[in-house]
């Protein structure tokens, strides 16, 4: 399975995920939330930031069901969903992941007919090959 690439700016995101927390970078000068993490605020150009705890509530903004040909590790699960969610507190923040039936479930565990744009989801965390990743659970399965 593909593993996230961690850089100095994004490392805290993964450290918080390992603790079961969804946090995004926040400028401490103007309070702008930003993702992906980066050294400078796009609004005020400040280099001062912190990590704000989010509720983990979101809505599906977009989704796809990849079909073969895929990487071999993913082909056996196809079709599975890949979603883009927008966070409830910050709709401008969008994260990519998968909707599953429970944390750590297979990527093909949700019936494709249950997904729709705007569906409410909430975050769950699962360890995948040594890295804790956010996954998404439907609020109304």
Architecture overview:
- Strand 1 (23-27) and strand 2 (33-34) form a beta hairpin.
- The chain is globular, with a radius of gyration of 16 Å.
- It starts with 10 loop residues before the first helix and ends with a strand.
- It has helices spanning 11-18, 72-75; strands at residues 23-27, 33-34, 49-53, 57-64, 82-87, 94-97, 120-128, 131-138.
- The chain has 141 residues and is mainly β.
- The model has no long low-confidence stretch (mean pLDDT 95).
User: What is the tally of helical segments?
Assistant: 2
Global geometry: globular
Rg over CA atoms, rounded to whole Å, is 16 Å
Strand order of the largest sheet: 6-5-4-7-8
What's the pLDDT, averaged over the residues?
A: 95
- Helix content estimate: under 10%
Instruction: Report strand %.
Output: 25-35%
Give structural attributes.
141 residues; mainly beta; five-stranded antiparallel β-sheet; three-stranded antiparallel β-sheet; 2 helices; 8 strands
What's the quick description here?
The chain contains two helices and eight strands, in the order αββββαββββ. The protein is mainly β and 141 residues long.
Helix and strand topology:
Blueprint: H1 11-18, E1 23-27, E2 33-34, E3 49-53, E4 57-64, H2 72-75, E5 82-87, E6 94-97, E7 120-128, E8 131-138
Antiparallel strand pairs: 1-2, 1-3, 4-5, 4-7, 5-6, 7-8
